[in-house]
Design brief:
CATH class: Alpha Beta
Largest sheet: 6 strands, mixed
Strand order of the largest sheet: 1-2-3-4-5-6
Oligomer: single chain
CATH architecture: 4-Layer Sandwich
CATH superfamily: Ribonuclease Z/Hydroxyacylglutathione hydrolase-like
Order of helices and strands: EEEHEHEHEEEEEEEHEEH
Number of helices: 5
Number of domains: 1
Shape: globular
Distance between the termini: 65 Å
Strand content: 25-35%
Low-confidence stretches: 212-227
CATH topology: Metallo-beta-lactamase, Chain A
Radius of gyration: 19 Å
Number of strands: 14
Structural class: alpha/beta
Length: 227
Amino acid sequence: MDIHRLVFNRLDENTYIASGAPGRCVVIDPGCQPGEEQEKMLSRLRGLGLTPEAILLTHGHMDHTYGAAALQKEFGIPVYMSPEDKPVIDYFQRVGRFGIPVPDASFTTTDISDGAVIDAAGLSFKVITTPGHSPGCVCYYDEARGVMFSGDTLFAGAIGRSDLFGGDYDQEIKAIMEKLMILPGPTEIYPGHGPASTISDERTGNPFLEPFNEREEIPELNQAQYD
């Protein structure tokens, strides 16, 4: 798999172009805003000689969806997203957030669910639902290549915030621990913000994944035993 990363908008969102076959690719979370950023996205695709066959949205937050409508119109391709995040898109269309422009939400989506498999551009992604950062957060896992696009669920050394509309910390930590931490250690993680990582690195070094950050109870010592 060839993976190319572009960083867009004021929230430094990672947009990925992934290719598994000559001339073909998928785009994960196109965060490119209209104008210069969207032209940069199209220019990169042209420079790589790649034509998108699908857009994969890990969730519906504005910084991850700016380019979805434009790319769908340009290439006539499906946009895959959990239906659980349609209310999220509607909500941010009404209220906005982060002091950034509201994106064009005119794109149509193809619903996905846990365990679904998306085959495109010579790649095969299993959908892993990880609600918590938003109700419809998902990760896209290519088991054969040991690669996962984790969106804003899991970062290098952190997890996604759960205080936005529809967020739920308990759901998020449960999904991460039960669905992601069981993946093979060498699995490469490509998150929605910041650098890449691996499952093994997050198991051993992510401070947010210590079991609920609960202090271990230690019984009081009986001093008489040591007199």
